[in-house]
Amino acid sequence: MAIDYAERIPNNVSLAENRRLQRALEQWQPGFQSWWAEMGPVGFQARDVYLRTATSVDAQGWASFGYVRMPEYRWGIFLADAVHDRKVAFGDHKGEPVWQEVPGEYRGALRRLIVTQGDTEPASVEQQRHLGATSPSLYDLRNLLQVNVEEGRHLWAMAYLLHAYFGRDGREEADALLQRRSGSDDNPRILGAFNEQTPDWLSFLMFTFFTDRDGKYQLASLAESAFDPLSRTCRFMLTEEAHHMFVGETGIGRVVQRTCELMKEHDTDEVGRFGGIGLKLMQKYLNFHYSVSLDLFGAELSTNAANYFSMGLKGRFNEESRDDDHKLKETSYRITQVDENRIVQKDQPALLALNETLRDAYIADCARGVSRWNKVIKAAGIDFELRLPHRGFHRAIGDCASVKVTPEGRLITEAEWAAHHSHWLPTPEERVFVGSLMIGVTEPGRFAGWIAPPARGINHQALDFEYVKR
Ligand code: BYC
Fold first, then answer.
1. Is the pLDDT of residue 60 over 80?
2. CA–CA gap between residue 223 and residue 355 (Å, rounded)
3. CB contact set of 446 (below 8 Å; sequence gap of 6+)
4. Which is nearest to 199 in space by CA: 294, 130, 285?
5. Which of 313, 335, 315 is nearest to 324 (CA)?
């Protein structure tokens, strides 16, 4: 179904036929716009940016590219097409028709999931709002702003579900999504990683690789939901999310490539003197972003996750292609836990271990990306490998939050941690150094010295295309 851009709120949910809902969303819209003006990207709001906008939801051609000023971006509500005769794929309701309304007894749990998902979207925009001034090229600036407007659209997606299906408390929650602030002491965002800072572009690229990838896995699990509007919303969000992870994976790949070039040119690992970011420093940023993103999956054993699954609200990654009973009452799953000061593997009830199941899928996906970066290093003839640290390293949620673990997975004392953590995580001085490299480059086709140009431009445009107009 094509989307009517003449409407005040572009949508493919027949909003015009539901006057009450339309009015409620039209009342929320100015709040969103004020939030965008106050907390969205700093600068560039009056510029023409070469953005893609969703114009339909079919697999081919949903994206149309053109110059848009961000405040005029057509944020709207788009659900993937309904799957005919869709049945609940897991949990206690397996095999029953999916729901078009929220079952009363699951209202609270479902609202909480939608609010948690929705809260991350504006949070990431807030975290990234200062990055435009220091973008390494117009190409990268455009990608940042694309990610930002699409996170804004994902906020719309969740605000729509809250307004359409949760009555007054849904409207209150949608308002609260515009009120919390990333990093605020009094009213912070819900999940830890979304209160961290994204102060420089290396952090941004790591964030889009690691933290947006949590988004992929969480959205894919919610796309399995028996609550069909949530499933359809998340399915369409996933198509947009892919570009965000592309920005991270290719972005870090380009930093790695540039570093390798500098290492060879100057025959040294110490590329900082030549305006590059050393591989060891990159490893520290990786350690940080990976570990805070692992926390986003919750504790290894979670009754919340078990309930979400049994209720049919949140499935596993690729639920339908899994070869088991999809109820998991009798199954076990091997997880990593801390037991009497040792890290051990234990079989636990699979139903309780769903957060860990999802984290495992995520870890395998991260490892594939890291191995692609390592190919760049190897091709340059350099003997170094980036690595994912142990899953217990630097954790604030779950079993390992109470202990200290090295990147290799060895349990250590607080004193050892205090003596060594600066070898594993970026120090304040290193963050200042990375910050010092961040000087905005705005001439079309030029790139900052710490990152290589990409292999190709956006939507078949040249690298020196004016992705953001003066
Ligand atoms: N920070 O039972 P547990 C994205 C709380 S990213 C702070 O293990 P559960 C995006 C937890 O709430 C994807 N608190 O938790 C990416 C619970 O609190 P209560 C976002 C945390 O519920 C980039 C307690 O600890 N989507 O889209 O099984 C840019 C016990 O924990 C954290 C979702 O997350 C944390 N990290 O699992 C833009 C999907 N972790 O009950 C966007 C929806 C746990 O004791 N959310 N806690 O008060 C969920 O499915 C679940 O809420 C979680 C947590 C998986 C996050």
1. no
2. 16
3. 137
4. 130
5. 315
Single-letter residue type at 74: R
Ligand 1 environment, Cβ below 6 A: 113, 116-117, 120-121, 124, 151, 191-192, 211-212, 214-215, 218, 295-299, 302, 304-305, 314, 355, 397
User: Ligand 1: which of 296, 356, 402 to mutate, most ligand atoms within 8 Å of CB?
Assistant: 296
Rg, C-alpha atoms of the chain: 22
Assign 142 to helix, strand or coil: helix
The rounded Å distance from CA 52 to ligand 1 centre is 30
194 CA from centroid of ligand 1 (Å) = 11
Q: Angle, to 10 degrees, between the axis of helix 167-179 and the axis of helix 107-127?
A: 20
Q: What whole-number distance in Å separates Cα of residue 41 and Cα of residue 203?
A: 16
Helical pair 212-222 and 228-266, crossing angle rounded to 10 deg: 160
> Is 103 in contact with 114 (CB distance < 8 Å)?
no
Chain segment 304-335, per-residue pLDDT in tens: 999 999 999 999 999 999 999 999 999 999 99
Percent of the chain with pLDDT over 70: 98
Residue 298 CA, ligand 1 centroid: distance in Å: 5
Could you tell which of 397, 399, 400, 402 is best to mutate to test the pocket of ligand 1, judged by most ligand atoms within 8 Å of the CB? 397
Structure confidence at residue 6 as a pLDDT band (50, 70, 90)? low
Segment 179-226, tens digit of pLDDT: 999 999 999 999 999 999 999 999 999 999 999 999 999 999 999 999
Atom of ligand 1 at shortest range from CA of 190: 7
For residue 315, the CA-to-ligand 1 centroid distance in Å is 15
Which tokens is 344 given?
């051990």
- DSSP characters over 235-271: HHHHHHHHHHHHHHHHHHHHHHHHHHHHHHHHT-S-G
Question: Can you tell me the distance from the alpha carbon of 337 to that of 220, in angstroms, rounded to the nearest whole number?
Answer: 26
DSSP β-bridge partners for residue 65:
52
Query: How far, in Å, from the CA of 240 to the mean position of ligand 1?
Result: 21
